[in-house]
């Protein structure tokens, strides 16, 4: 990594580079990463101190693991069976294009995670020289962690603030999803198409422009599974509708996406609830009204999304080995 020091912005980043260069590492990587929850702002911040920093950590560090904090099972108020602990990740000591990499310098990332998706497809994107899981037994978020913000197998990015301000994703070599470990020891398969809510929403944190502390996850079912104490009702996902709040901070209902008719003339922004009798999609609008739409009247991509989401919810309580 002769050119790596030119990329390094702070001490934490230098430590990662040094860890990669340390011959005692013997090239070891880790394919298992810890869940930092659905927070988006400065999730990897470790060394800063002060009342404001502590407030920000308490507000935004919402997963089973967090930088510079000790957490116990008693802190998992959502229940161990509803809270993610670990996921697999495609690991590589050096950047593996399209598979194990971190885009760098994405300005505004914590207030709009979807910017990472755009940045990763930019032909001029800049990347860190290491991949995800690059150092065995390293708990640093970008190396040994993930967030339930962008869906499984999505890109990973850091902002212009450096690696302390990253949004990194779970990943695998499986087709269509990742295997995850829940707090109660259950191992399950999560589809790439899991509901991720509003990816243009800011995360929960202290500061202007973020969702207020204690808000339920803006990132749909995926975000709810990552947060440990926001009291999102998962209902075991055994065929029951997933309950989301109607409003958070004046924003549209979480989990709401746009559903279009097959002719493209009609559109409804609503939360997917279930499929009835294999032919009718039940959707819930922001006002709380239920809409029953014939499955075959939806656009092809929305039929696919509805079926995938419903099958995942039905099978969620059964490990997929």
Detailed description of the structure:
- The chain contains six helices and 13 strands.
- It has 321 residues and is α+β, with helices and mostly antiparallel strands.
- The strands form four sheets. A five-stranded mixed beta sheet has the order 5-1-2-8-9. It has a four-stranded antiparallel beta sheet with strand order 10-11-12-13. It has a two-stranded antiparallel sheet with strand order 3-4.
- A hairpin with a 6-residue loop joins strand 10 and strand 11.
- It starts with 10 loop residues before the first helix and ends in a 6-residue tail after the last helix.
- The N terminus and C terminus are likely disordered.
Short description:
The protein has 321 residues and is α+β, with helices and mostly antiparallel strands. It is built from six helices and 13 strands. The chain has a five-stranded mixed sheet.
Annotate the secondary structure layout.
Elements: H1 11-21, E1 32-35, H2 51-60, E2 84-88, E3 103-104, H3 114-120, E4 126-127, H4 141-144, E5 145-146, E6 157-159, E7 162-167, E8 177-182, E9 187-191, H5 220-226, E10 256-260, E11 267-276, E12 280-285, E13 290-294, H6 300-315
Parallel strand pairs: 1-5
Antiparallel strand pairs: 1-2, 2-8, 3-4, 6-7, 8-9, 10-11, 11-12, 12-13
Which tags fit this structure?
321 residues; alpha+beta; five-stranded mixed β-sheet; four-stranded antiparallel β-sheet; 13 strands; disordered N terminus; disordered C terminus
Poorly predicted ranges (pLDDT <50, ≥5 residues)?
A: 1-9, 235-254, 317-321
Q: Biggest β-sheet, characterized?
A: 5 strands, mixed
Terminal CA distance reads 38 Å
What percentage of the residues does DSSP assign to strands (E)?
15-25%
Which strand order spans the largest sheet, edge to edge or round the barrel?
5-1-2-8-9
Give the radius of gyration. Answer: 19 Å
Q: Give the integer mean of the pLDDT values.
A: 80
Q: What is the helix tally?
A: 6
Q: Please report the total strand number as a whole number.
A: 13
H-E order: HEHEEHEHEEEEEHEEEEH
Which structural class is indicated by helix and strand composition? Answer: alpha+beta
Q: What coarse outline follows from CA principal-axis ratios?
A: globular
